[in-house]
Amino acid sequence: MLEVREHFQRVLEEWVPELREAWLEYLKSRTAEPEGPSPIQPVAFKRVREASGSVAEVRGRDDDAQVWVDGTLVERVVARKDFTQELSPAVFRADGMEFVELFDASPEALAALDEYRRSAGEPPWEHASELLADGLIDVHFELTPRGRRALAQR
Question: What is the overall mean pLDDT for the chain?
């Protein structure tokens, strides 16, 4: 049981350090459940089409991803098949429009991820939520195909 507690505390410290104390107090004293962290739905693909301003996002599991254009669900795809290319830039066609990939992660987060990948040192935990939300890493801090495309553009 002690191992589980230590693991949980380490996960809190790595992923949500600002909520660590609130979650520990909740578990210890049964206080009100902390608000957060909000769930992260990693992006498989994202782009704003410059000509029209339309935004395309692909989110979801490998076998059931949803394509959203301007906040409207337009189709479902198999992300594992459609978004595993590692060459950049990735191009995707949806709702009669062509979208070229865009990354939201900050330059600092991308630099830290690139350094981690090259050195195999300690993961850049301070950027974990941002990198996961942008679909660049998985929960084990492994690069996703999207992450490899993002680093290839650097």
Answer: 79
Q: What is the 3-state secondary structure (H, E, C) of 70-125?
A: CCEEEEEECHHHHCCCCCCCCEEEECCEEEECCCCCCHHHHHHHHHHHHHCCCCCH
Please answer whether residues 25 and 13 qualify as being in contact, where contact means their C-beta atoms are separated by less than 8 angstroms: no
Q: What is the mean pLDDT of residues 25-52?
A: 75
Task: Give the alpha-carbon dihedral of 95, 85, 39, 132, to 10 degrees.
Answer: -140
Bridge partners, 56 (sequence order): 47, 69
Amino acid 96 reads G
User: Cβ distance 99 to 91 under 8 Å?
Assistant: yes
**83 pLDDT more than 80:** no
Q: How many CB atoms lie within 10 A of CB 80?
A: 14
The residue among 46, 39, 33 whose CA lies nearest residue 15 is 39
